[in-house]
Amino acid sequence: MTAEPVLNAARPENERAELLRWMKTELHAEYGDRHLDPRREPMHELISTILSQRTTWQDEAAAYDELCEIGDWDAIIAAPTEAVAHAIRRSNYPESKAPRIQETLRRIRDSPGGYNLEFLRDMPSKDALKWLTDLPGVGVKTASLVLLFNYAHPVFPVDTHVHRITTRVGAIPLMGEQAAHRALLKVLPEDPPFLYELHLNLLRHGQQVCQWSRPKCGVCVLRERCDAFALFGDKVPSFSETKTKGKGTATRKRT
Ligand code: SF4
């Protein structure tokens, strides 16, 4: 007898690892190759990613550009915090991000390499993650992005899209984004090009198909193995609803 699909099932690790490999293959067929090339230099990646939290990429880019109009990193550290907050006002929560960015820059300036983060390349991934996440305003997603994108460390940034899709499909049980980092990393291969491509293709899939509310399951290449689709058909609830109600919501079967 085939077991009923259950949203947020706690699958064995080997099954979750296989499911993620299958997702990567399907998304590759849909969106193609992604070559692991740094998209911007490490300090730019770090500060931009802090600015990107709860912010669209257009606003993030505008905030970064205006921040740089203050001057170099030293000038940003020396500027009044209100001026920094004003420069990054298109990013959400500028008043809390401004002092954190200044303190992060100060600590990096005072580190042995100064603003050159190249030393992170040869550090063990665990230590490099710790070094970055000890900086104010730098969470595990930001640190993972810098380490994977710029230094090809085998880490996996979990943003809202990655979190939502892997939860709906059933690659991880329902949990917060922080915990999802650990859960996914445990079952993903230590293969930076694989991790990079999977991250970028999940991001694209989340923007175009598996959206927060009303995901377009009818055109989704992950549909055949997606727990949420198996349970809810083309009426997959918004992700807020899944997060609020958790396990108990999974009652409807595929029609
Ligand atoms: S089938 Fe629907 S819920 Fe599942 S991954 Fe695709 S779009 Fe998302």
TrEMBL record:
<keyword id="KW-0479">Metal-binding</keyword>
<dbReference type="GO" id="GO:0046872">
    <property type="term" value="F:metal ion binding"/>
</dbReference>
<dbReference type="InterPro" id="IPR004035">
    <property type="entry name" value="Endouclease-III_FeS-bd_BS"/>
</dbReference>
<comment type="similarity">
    <text>Belongs to the Nth/MutY family.</text>
</comment>
<protein>
    <submittedName>
        <fullName>Endonuclease III</fullName>
        <ecNumber>4.2.99.18</ecNumber>
    </submittedName>
</protein>
<dbReference type="Pfam" id="PF00730">
    <property type="entry name" value="HhH-GPD"/>
</dbReference>
<keyword id="KW-0234">DNA repair</keyword>
<keyword id="KW-0456">Lyase</keyword>
<keyword id="KW-0227">DNA damage</keyword>
<dbReference type="InterPro" id="IPR003265">
    <property type="entry name" value="HhH-GPD_domain"/>
</dbReference>
<keyword id="KW-0411">Iron-sulfur</keyword>
<dbReference type="InterPro" id="IPR023170">
    <property type="entry name" value="HhH_base_excis_C"/>
</dbReference>
<dbReference type="GO" id="GO:0016798">
    <property type="term" value="F:hydrolase activity, acting on glycosyl bonds"/>
</dbReference>
<dbReference type="GO" id="GO:0140078">
    <property type="term" value="F:class I DNA-(apurinic or apyrimidinic site) endonuclease activity"/>
</dbReference>
<dbReference type="InterPro" id="IPR011257">
    <property type="entry name" value="DNA_glycosylase"/>
</dbReference>
<keyword id="KW-0378">Hydrolase</keyword>
<keyword id="KW-0540">Nuclease</keyword>
<keyword id="KW-0408">Iron</keyword>
<dbReference type="GO" id="GO:0006284">
    <property type="term" value="P:base-excision repair"/>
</dbReference>
<dbReference type="InterPro" id="IPR003651">
    <property type="entry name" value="Endonuclease3_FeS-loop_motif"/>
</dbReference>
<keyword id="KW-0255">Endonuclease</keyword>
<keyword id="KW-0326">Glycosidase</keyword>
<feature type="domain" description="HhH-GPD">
    <location>
        <begin position="51"/>
        <end position="208"/>
    </location>
</feature>
<dbReference type="GO" id="GO:0051539">
    <property type="term" value="F:4 iron, 4 sulfur cluster binding"/>
</dbReference>
